[in-house]
């Protein structure tokens, strides 16, 4: 609970909160800080089909309360808190994905974390990770325009912004807490 994302989440979590981590992998947000989430807090991960299948197996095996939903086939409506951590720069069209989710649900809180941004126009790059799988792996990453990113959440206001000490500095990676205006 010492990470900025955990501190941002704390005031919004209760036994009746539904939190969805879009692109949340195997549920690391919940698994790495289990005491942060009170009993009864509904913990969702929205992912691609292969990750959903693996997540469901792991949740069943270890008795985790995490629910895994397929981003392509399952609609999530009543969400109180929506998290995008390290996922938006890797989506082909993050703007459309944000709009689609906000049309399906109107969360009170949106948290962005580990998101590559710049003050210039959004632009694609090739990210290289040497030795990640015992070889060099490359994949596309879009560094997002900061203003366009904030504006893609109409009806929300930016409350807090942060950097993680372990994230890349170039491009700049940020976290943001956005709260619905009314």
- Strand tally is 9
Strand content: 25-35%
The CA-CA distance between the termini, in Å, is 28 Å
Which blocks of ≥5 consecutive residues have pLDDT under 50?
Answer: none
| SSE string | HEHEHEEHEEEHEE
Tell me the helix content: 10-25%
Cα-based radius of gyration, to the nearest Å: 16 Å
Treating each run of at least 4 consecutive H or I residues as one helix, how many helices? 5
Report the structural category: alpha/beta
Shape: globular
Overview of the structural elements:
The protein has 182 residues and is an alpha/beta fold. The chain is built from five helices and nine strands; from the N terminus they run αβαβαββαβββαββ. Strands 1, 2, 3, 4, 5, 6, 7, 8 and 9 form a nine-stranded mixed beta sheet that branches. The model has no long low-confidence stretch (mean pLDDT 94).
Describe the secondary-structure layout:
Blueprint: H1 4-9, E1 18-22, H2 28-31, E2 42-47, H3 49-62, E3 66-70, E4 81-85, H4 94-104, E5 109-118, E6 123-129, E7 137-145, H5 146-151, E8 156-162, E9 172-180
Parallel strand pairs: 1-2, 1-4, 2-3, 4-5, 5-7
Antiparallel strand pairs: 5-9, 6-7, 8-9
Name a few traits of the molecule:
single chain; 182 residues; alpha/beta; 9-stranded mixed sheet; 9 strands
Summarize the structure.
By secondary structure, this protein is an alpha/beta fold.
């Amino acid at each position: 609970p010492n990470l900025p994302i955990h501190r941002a989440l704390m005031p919004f979590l209760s036994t009746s909160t539904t939190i969805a981590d879009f692109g949340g992998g195997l549920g690391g947000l919940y698994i790495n800080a289990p005491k942060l989430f009170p009993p009864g807090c509904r913990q969702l991960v929205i992912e691609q089909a292969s990750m959903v299948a693996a997540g469901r197996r792991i949740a069943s095996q270890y008795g985790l309360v995490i629910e895994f939903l397929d981003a392509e086939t399952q609609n999530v409506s009543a969400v109180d808190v929506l998290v995008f951590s390290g996922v938006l720069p890797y989506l082909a069209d993050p703007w459309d994905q944000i709009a689609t989710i906000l049309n399906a649900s109107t969360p009170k809180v949106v948290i962005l974390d580990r998101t590559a941004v710049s003050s210039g126009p959004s632009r694609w790059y090739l990210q290289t990770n040497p030795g990640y799988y015992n070889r060099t792996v490359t994949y596309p990453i879009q560094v997002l325009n900061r203003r366009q990113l904030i504006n893609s959440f109409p009806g929300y206001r930016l409350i807090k912004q942060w950097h993680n000490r372990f994230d890349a500095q170039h491009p700049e990676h940020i976290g943001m807490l956005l709260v619905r205006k009314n």
